[in-house]
Amino acid sequence: MKHQQHPLISPVLGTRRVIDSFHFGTPGCGRKIYIQASLHADELPGMLAAWKLKQQLHELEAQGCIQGEIIVVPVANPVGQNQHLMDVHLGRYETETGQNFNRGYYDTYAQVADLVENQLSDDPQENKKIIRLALRQAIQSWQVETEMHSMQKTLQSLCCDADVIIDMHCDFEAVQHVYSTYYSWESMIPLACWLDSKANMLADETGGNPFDSAFDMVWQRLHARFGDIIPKGCQSVTLELCGQADVSHNKSNQDAEALLNYLRHLEVLIDRAADEYDPQTLYVSDLTAVEPLKSPFGGVVVLCAEVGEQVTAGQLIAEVIDPVTDEVAQIRATHPGLLFSRTMRRTATAGMLVAHVAGEIPVRSGYLLAP
């Protein structure tokens, strides 16, 4: 195992943060897999799972069982780790700018397309090498000026040439679920099965430039432009490892074992064969068919349905009660589907997201991500 530290731009005098990456295996001798956790800094189930994974990979590497390269970044957001206000961890947004830590990643597509256009041949594997060099060149050309952007550049530099990118998050209160693109989904099915993911939501265009689609969608767009001479160079996925309170040894052991099984499936781990899996058990939904349910005004939140519950059209999901005016808002699902996440808060603000239901009927378009 090699431990590398990547310094970020120092925002003020007397401070210095780094991103720590742990490298297993041998670069260039097989597939490259990149795994990170807690990009939203207050989402910790993935951080614990990454630590468990790191311990096991250290032992497996000593046994000569790694065929390829694995990079693990258990703390992807040291900036957000230091954002605490009155005993509350604020890890989703940078407090200086309000930017979501999982939005606004550098879009390399136009730059890469221009760089490779006159270099491509009829050999897809050679083209893969050319494109990966161009991706790295494009990322390195990004002139960053802030700590936030230097963090984004560091993370993108670590994974721009990866075959597989895994970004581990969690929701507020939730069942295990997955976000991916149609481009990447087929390769992610085994991982979703081993994680026992209850909802799997797909979209190629979400808006917002999140981390997980910063590279697989570049490959997809290059394929759309240049055709079949462009291979599938990168697949990516966001894992939502239940809720923020789901930090336990039993849970993290299961998540780490799912990741190990996936690495065996990819033949990057060769200690034994991967376990069998059944893709027929997966519930898959287009991201446009996910209904966000919001509070119309501020008040007390009373949750009336459990995460993991299959809800019907019109079913009561929550109530918001104004104890001054006696007004009661009943928040109901418009369409049937799986209630896969809900708020942890019991005080609503006007317009606050209360729950998500994954159905089968598209109910929205355009920008598809949560704030």
Automatic annotation (TrEMBL):
It holds the Pfam family AstE_AspA_cat. Its cofactor is Zn(2+). Keywords: Hydrolase, Metal-binding, Zinc. InterPro entries: AstE_AspA_cat, N-alpha-Ac-DABA_deacetylase. It comes from the Bacteria. Gene3D superfamilies: Zn peptidases. Residues 30-266 form the Succinylglutamate desuccinylase/Aspartoacylase catalytic domain. GO terms for molecular function: hydrolase activity, acting on ester bonds; metal ion binding. This is Succinylglutamate desuccinylase / Aspartoacylase family protein.
